[in-house]
Amino acid sequence: MRPRPPAVLTSLPARFSSRLHDERVAAWLGMALGVSFLSAFATGLISHFMQHPPAWAQWPSRPVNLYRVSQGVHVIGGLATVPLLLAKLWTVYPKLWQWPPVRSAAHGLRRLAVFALVGGALFQFVTGVLNIAYWYAFPFLFTTAHYWTAYIVIGALLVHAADQWPKARRTVMTRPQDAVGRRAFLLTVAGAGGVIAATTAGEAFTPLARLAVLAPRRPGTGPQGLPVNRSAAAAGVTAPARDPGWRLTVTGRVARELTLSLDDLRALPQHTARLPIACVEGWSADGAWRGVRLRDLLAMAGAPAGARVRIESLQRGGIYRTSQVAPPHWRDPLTLLALGLNGEPLHLDHGYPCRLIAPNRPGVMQTKWVHRVVVE
Ligand SMILES: Nc1nc2c(c(=O)[nH]1)N[C@H]1C(S)=C(S)[C@@H](COP(=O)(O)O)O[C@H]1N2
Ligand SMILES: [Mo]
């Protein structure tokens, strides 16, 4: 004999009185969420592997805005998905109390996948939003946790989607018999997602910058019209960056080591590149950068053509004090050690005396306050 459900559960169905706890609403929302999660996963992988390229692979340096668009889709698309996720959870939460909780091994596995999917998705959204709000309320490194949880979420999503697909497809293909306000509900949810997208897209898409009231950073703000992520004071580099004794050295596997003062750098051929800073947190903004081509410096030093280059900052600690530049990027004529931005000498917070700026590259790898270029 089956155990009877606890009394509290038998009284529950009456409380889930809304007719929107409904298969049809759940199916439509599920399909939309599936598309959105897959897009987040793909763009997330791009971001991860741009920051941590495997030894055997190199990213191209073009198109210039590839990373910017991909990361904008990741963050803005992710934020716009929040209402969909909440609506889906609200629609299906009566199932949480289904009785018996596990009917068979297969049913148990299905439910396990749903729990992993819901738990993982909530974790991704909550920590993701806290991260772009610069509220590091958690003890772990966000990027690592976000990356590994993504595999759990996508694995669980595939199991859940394979399981639900036949039923969901049938549900959306048949005509509804009754009108219970589904269309209005789904349109409201889609509208809420649209409002979030519209009020954050301007953080990456400059024409909408003034609408971006929900974005923590946006183009047009900050010194020289560009947001600042970590200031010189926060990075502890104010004194060494201002020191007239500052020198740039080009060293490592080179024929001639170079040591250059700021005046030496200014005396070299100067080039302008219009390139974005595209932060992993979703915001991006164009600047007109002016400075010395990295490839010119490496040619002067006699660096081997296939070498990888490490850019080092004056900053003493922090995970973004160095970055790697692979040949497609350092050979690109747009890749500069910039001395100026938007017609002025580089602001201290943008990396004075000199910073790396390269096309199609995450913001975290656009190293500021550079003082050493090491050919590996
Ligand atoms: N040395 C150093 N460079 C750095 C950082 C840093 O913390 N230290 N932050 C990076 C990040 S996360 C971004 S998005 C860009 C932002 O550049 P900006 O402050 O000039 O806009 O700088 C990058 N360069
Ligand atoms: Mo960033």
How do the strands and helices of this protein lay out in sequence?
Layout: H1 7-10, H2 23-51, H3 66-92, H4 105-132, H5 142-173, H6 182-200, H7 232-235, H8 238-242, E1 248-252, E2 258-260, H9 262-267, E3 271-278, E4 284-293, H10 294-301, E5 309-313, E6 322-325, H11 327-330, E7 336-341, E8 344-345, E9 355-357, E10 370-375
Helix pairs in contact: 2-3, 2-5, 3-6, 4-5
Q: What does the main sheet amount to?
A: 5 strands, mixed
Distance between the termini: 72 Å
Q: What Rg is obtained from the alpha carbons, in whole angstroms?
A: 26 Å
Strand element count? 10
Mean pLDDT: 95
Helix/strand/pairing class, anyone?
alpha+beta
Total of helices: 11
User: What multimeric state do the chains show?
Assistant: single chain
Ligand species:
the ligand Nc1nc2c(c(=O)[nH]1)N[C@H]1C(S)=C(S)[C@@H](COP(=O)(O)O)O[C@H]1N2, molybdenum atom
Gross morphology is elongated
**Number of individual domains:** 2
Contiguous uncertain segments of 5+ residues: none
Helix percent band: 40-55%
Trace the largest sheet across and list its strands: 2-1-10-5-6
Give the H and E element order.
HHHHHHHHEEHEEHEEHEEEE
- As a percent range, the share of strand residues is 5-15%
